[in-house]
Amino acid sequence: MTEHHLAQLNVAIPNHPMDDPRMAGFTEMLDPINALADSSPGFVWRFRSEGSNDATTERPFGPDLLINLSVWESLEALWNFTYRSEHLDLLRRRREWFQHMEEVHTVLWWLPATRLPSLDEAGERLAHLRAHGPTAHAFTFRTSFAPPSHGTTRPSPIRP
Fold first, then answer.
1. How would you list the strands of the sheet with 106-112, edge to edge?
2. Which of 46, 65, 112, 157 could form a disulfide with 70 if both were Cys (CB 3.0 to 4.6 A apart)?
3. Whole-prediction pTM value?
4. Mean pLDDT in the chain?
């Protein structure tokens, strides 16, 4: 078991209310994509609203922001799910359902493998990334950092 896991938060502003028929293409994909994540190699955990299989009813960062918060064993595991699985089809269609955001909307960070992130922590990491750019505290796929146990705070030149 590794000492650290990778947490990720992404936020999105839907083009329409979630129950609007124009969001059906997205909402119909939620369960299959979440099931794919749950069964993907390296998946650890994802935040779910109480009594739900997803987090679409949670709005901790504003009434218009949907969230996705998950934990993975490694950067490579998250990368493979995000860009090398059926999830990529969802990403390719995101403009149908979500507004373009000028601000950074995805943040990654390492946390001890013995705990899960809180929503408050996730929000703080996103705010830190927006204010300071990628650092070992909060980073992106493009500018990623090795886990703290590797003893470096320089960006990792290695991409998954």
1. 43-46, 66-72, 4-12, 106-112
2. 46
3. 0.90
4. 91
